[in-house]
């Protein structure tokens, strides 16, 4: 298709040619090449003179109208040139708009591609987690079936032995009772019934004692196993390094080496304990509350938690007050043994609530410290805070200078003024700003220290503590 300005230029050229030809025909007068005619008679001369006068007047009229047509053609050409310029400007604007539209389409395509890649990555991560959960369920079913089979065999054999033993006892009783049965059957039957009742109760008592002995033996074996696992150093006796209130009578129990967790310290009072996870690892201090290891404590605005990646990796604060233990130490603790998690919260009205999870562990720095394991939320608590952490399971840790959340258009750490395992973005914010009581803590927005299922996202809490405790084999029996 021809452009409009080309068509207009062609029209201008044609009009110019027409104007030029019309002007030339009007101005141009043909030359007389023949000899003059013979003088006419007088009468004819008057007529000829009148005719020539008319001819001269016609030429004069034609000559006067030619400049007017030329001026009209000039105005027409000027108008056409202006229209051509206007069309050229419109064409340039149209090309510019098309370029802008093409650029926006390219940006939209790039953004859509990035979103699709992110969705694919999330789907792959979800499939991986689903496969791992299915594998764990399969292993759990196999283990339960194995334990069930073993239990059935054990109790089946015991039941058979008990029945045989009862049958032998009855045979012996019958043999002893035959000589006297003819003398006094009612009295003998009553005595036999009483004896059978006594034997049954005695057997039940013996059975319960056997079960208790077996349980105690199992606990002792497991306790010895724990002591062997924790005794990595020399056999020299060394008490734990403990800073806090003194123990009973000022004496602490002796240990072959540094404990690996607060649960092995047997200290009933809060304090600071030095632990060593393995013989090759470096020892470090932790804050203990009974057998729980405190990894996060918030109770005032003395410590700023809006920090960068390096601070959260190494830890910061005061173990005797507000602090965070550090992602490196937390990874070392949760990778040395499977831990359970307890989160204790308090609002400014004095209400204390808990949120307990059956298991808890995080990954290494090369994985960006993801929340790899978060067990089932325990709903049977008397004062439960509700579950506002399961949403974050599997998410990577993010800080204000290291954004690892799944939000493409925001930085969740900056949005909530803290850090944490954000996933587009959060249902809790334990690492957020501390809002004191003299400020508007009840309407702090999502930048405070909040738990969505307890007082909502706009209410900034007064106190928060995160604590972990190892779940080792036989530990539940020791607690009972």
From TrEMBL:
Annotated segments matching region Disordered: 31-69
Biased composition (Polar residues): 50-69
Signal sequence annotation: 1-24
One Gene Ontology CC term in the entry: extracellular space
Keywords: Signal
Entries under Pfam families matching the protein: Fibrinogen_C (PF00147)
UniProt domain Fibrinogen C-terminal: residue ranges: 253-472
Keyword Signal: yes
UniProt-listed PANTHER family: FI21813P1-RELATED, FIBRINOGEN/TENASCIN/ANGIOPOEITIN
Identification of the protein by name: Fibrinogen C-terminal domain-containing protein
Species of the source: Drosophila gunungcola (fruit fly)
């Amino acid at each position: 298709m021809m452009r409009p300005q080309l068509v207009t230029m062609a029209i201008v050229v044609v009009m110019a040619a027409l104007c030029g030809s019309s002007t030339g025909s009007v101005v141009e007068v043909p030359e007389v090449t023949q000899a003059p005619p013979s003088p006419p008679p007088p009468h004819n001369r008057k007529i000829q003179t009148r005719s020539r006068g008319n001819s001269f007047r016609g030429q004069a009229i034609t000559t006067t109208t030619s400049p007017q047509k030329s001026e009209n053609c000039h105005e027409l050409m000027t108008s056409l040139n202006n229209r051509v310029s206007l069309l050229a400007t419109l064409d340039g604007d149209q090309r510019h708009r098309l370029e802008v539209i093409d650029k926006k389409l390219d940006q939209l395509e790039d953004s859509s591609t990035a979103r699709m890649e992110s969705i694919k990555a999330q789907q792959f991560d979800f499939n991986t987690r689903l496969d791992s959960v299915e594998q764990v369920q399969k292993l759990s079913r196999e283990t339960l079936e194995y334990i069930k089979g073993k239990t059935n065999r054990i109790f089946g054999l015991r039941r058979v032995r008990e029945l045989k033993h009862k049958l032998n006892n009855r045979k012996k009783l019958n043999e002893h009772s035959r000589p006297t049965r003819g003398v006094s059957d009612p009295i003998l039957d009553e005595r036999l019934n009483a004896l059978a009742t006594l034997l049954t109760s005695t057997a039940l008592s013996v059975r319960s004692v056997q079960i208790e002995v077996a349980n105690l033996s199992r606990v002792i074996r497991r306790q010895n196993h724990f002591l062997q696992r924790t005794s990595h150093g020399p056999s020299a006796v060394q008490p734990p390094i403990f800073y806090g209130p003194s123990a009973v009578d000022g004496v602490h129990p002796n240990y072959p080496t540094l404990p690996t967790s607060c649960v092995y310290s047997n200290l009933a009072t809060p304090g600071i304990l030095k632990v060593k996870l393995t013989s090759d690892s470096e020892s470090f201090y932790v804050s203990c509350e009974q057998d729980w290891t405190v990894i996060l404590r918030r109770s005032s605005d003395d410590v700023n938690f809006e920090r960068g990646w390096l601070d959260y990796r190494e830890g910061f604060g005061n173990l005797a007050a507000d602090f965070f233990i550090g992602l490196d130490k937390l990874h070392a603790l949760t990778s040395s043994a499977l831990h359970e998690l307890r989160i204790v919260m308090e609002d400014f009205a004095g209400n204390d609530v808990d949120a307990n999870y059956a298991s808890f562990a995080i990954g290494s720095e090369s994985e960006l410290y993801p929340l790899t394991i978060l067990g089932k939320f325990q709903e049977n608590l008397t004062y439960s805070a509700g579950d506002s952490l399961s949403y974050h399971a599997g998410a990577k840790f993010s800080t204000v200078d290291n954004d690892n959340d799944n939000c493409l258009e925001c930085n969740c750490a900056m949005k909530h003024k803290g850090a944490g395992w954000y996933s587009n973005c959060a249902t809790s914010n334990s690492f957020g700003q501390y809002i004191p009581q003299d400020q508007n803590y009840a309407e702090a927005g999502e930048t405070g220290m909040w738990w969505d299922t307890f007082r909502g996202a706009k209410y900034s809490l007064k106190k928060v503590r995160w604590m972990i405790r190892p779940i080792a084999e036989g530990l539940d029996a020791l607690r009972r």
